[in-house]
Design a protein that fits this description.
Elements (H helix, E strand, L loop, with lengths): L27 H17 L4 E2 H10 L20 E2 L13 E4 L6 E10 L34 E9 L11 H10 L9 E6 L3 H4 L3 H10 L3 H4 L8 H5 L4 H20 L4 E4 L2 E4 H9 L6 H12 L17 E4 H6 L12 H20 L10 E6 L6 E5 L16 H4 L29 E6 L2 E7 L2 H6 L1 E3 L2 H11 L4 E7 L7 H4 E7 L6 E3 L12 E7 L4 E5 L2 E8 L2 E5 L3 H7 L4 E2 L2 E2 L6 H12 L1 E2 L5 E4 L3 H6 L6 H15 L4 E7 L5 E2 L8 E7 L3 E3 L16 E4 L2 E4 L8 H13 L12 E4 L2 E4 L1
Amino acid sequence: MEREVPDPYGERAMLTPAMTAGYEAVPEAEREQLQNYLQAVVAVRRAPVHSAVAFNAAYFGYDLGGEGYGASPLRPEDFPVITLGECAPVLPVGAMVCVTSGSEPLFAEIVYREGAHPEVSTHGDVPAWVSGAPVGAEGPGEPGEGAAPRRRELLVPDFDAFGPALSLSPTQLHRLRTRQRWINADGHLVVDVCYSSQGAARRDELAAYAEHLLSVARDQLLSPFVPVSLAELVGGTYDEDLRAGLAGIFDTIQGVLDSSELLRRWGQYAMTRTSLAQCWRDTGPLGGDDLRSLVAAVEHAAVPVKRRYRETSAHPVYIAVGPRLRAFPGAADLLTGTGYAAAVCRANVALADVVQRDSEQGLFASGSVITLDDAFESGGVWRSHHPGAPESSGDPLRPAGRGWASTLPPVTEAGVDLEPVDLPLADDTSLGSAELLRSDGPDVVWSAPLRLAHLRDGWFPLPSEAVGGLCWSQGRCPTLRLELSHPGQTVNEKEAKQDVAVGLEQEAPRLTGILWPLTFFPGLMIEVHGTLGGATIRMTTRLLRERVLIGDRETGHRYDPRVLTREDVPGSDRYGDSAAGLGPRQLVMRTVRRCGLLTPDGHALMDRVALPTAAYGQIPVGAATASLESAVVELLEKRVLEPALGSRDALGQPHHPARDGQPVIELIGYRPLERRVIRPWSGAEEGGALLGVQLVPGHLRRLRPGCSPSEVQRQAFRDYCRRLGKADGWELPHGYTFVTEHTRGH
């Protein structure tokens, strides 16, 4: 009996609360249901399905019968309207947009995205500096670190994703492709993308799409017409909760796609194994013969050519897959529309398979070494070098960016401490800086971790977006009412509601005179809500899903691991900050955490030889040195600290991992692992949920023909809309009912 493919608007919601915690937290039955559906989506879509597009299918309700999103009650008016001009906004894969094109709006889902650098030739030859170059690079060794970098990109839109009603007719599409004003002759968008900052330019595709959903497409994300809202899955509409929920669902979707026996993945793009096998059997353009020719061309691209009197010198060659595919006879028509994305992904899979099967870490018997150098530019840039050696990283398919790196000065320039590739170091100057979460009209929401200085002196930073309105409406030093909440903990009346001042005398504006609860600690994340011109500021903390133990600190609230490592150390609290009176073990812990190299996850690494000097301010002798070394040995044995290896440069600066050509040194590391606090079993999980009982959030369900919802269900949907921010609610779309939140199980 053929298994029925689940429907996002069916009896069971496709996305569940467990999925917001990531793949490992999802019960097997829920994984299987999502996997069955996504396998069917990949099979019917013409383009390879990116993880972001897979999320769209499950979240926005993609119909497998040919209607796409057109069968769902999605409202096209909620889509972001994009006007293409001299500089376009960031459009990550997954973005659903309405592109203005005169009298014919283009509704599309972006299903593929790559770099389109003008220096890449039509035959796929790539200048070395372009491969792996940062966004905004201007030439060899010239990163062009501007405040708002630009990059030319090629986007593949799927104009059929919303069904026949919102699709262009062949005549309309031909006319637009002929004009080449909004789309090019292949039906693609080639745009100069303007990034807001270097940080935004470095986001990976899923992080960029999450940012897009939480900002530009927020109305679409929180639409009540999706099968089940993210707000229902995470239990609220706070940005931090939504962001964490998205990250968990993305992890779940990637885990489901990776574990499928029917699918293959190239990066974030999924294809069916059947389609790949059919491609290899195909004898036409871009079939098996052309793929084998492409692989051979890449392998031998750097082999020196023998001339009559000499042999040409060997040098690395960089080849872009996308342009190289266009050189095959008869390929042009197959590379239009979404066919381009399919062809590029299949070609990269073919190259990867040959490298893994026929080479030793990229080194072929011919003497050539083939590695992936840039996964984004022009469909993927592969590096061919002859003669070569196996990849030192052990993975020839990890984009190395050797082309760009070859144009840079040596990594150990005097005074320069570059971030290592596999263990990036945090910038202590930005430690604990405030992050603006939302600034919509008069409402401003920001968050920042509590610092030791905040606790000691009773203040908290204000972003400039919040200060302007306060100053104009309240005077130069206004007094505000602070309402402070700490979910799961009790705060007394003086702490819950207090009068605070806005201080403008310092370099940065701040709230002053704050009375912090005794349970607050350095690193605790504080979310602040303010209204321009308003007299009240609201502060709150956010709960974790379960209590955790980090070092000696137990908490059930969200925190910044970097600040916790640096400032929640022995000898430091709101009453003082001194190493006086600490024993050897406490002194070692304080020194490593305060002086070690700091990573984004709060891992601190310190040169073991430098520990005594850092602890005492000078080189100690005798018993002091011996006591510190004994404490280090004891902490390593108890695995409170961990041993590691690094290197020291000519200026005496430590690095991790060890760098070639530098003396190897011993490091001692502090890694604050999160350990779940185990509670005694009492027949119920924390929060009162009985074991074996599953919470089902409120969701839309498609009705059978001839059925209609009751008035109770209509009213429940209006209440549901109000929770999502629509004050007067919405009416149920025709053909759907609303299933209220309930529990399932026993």
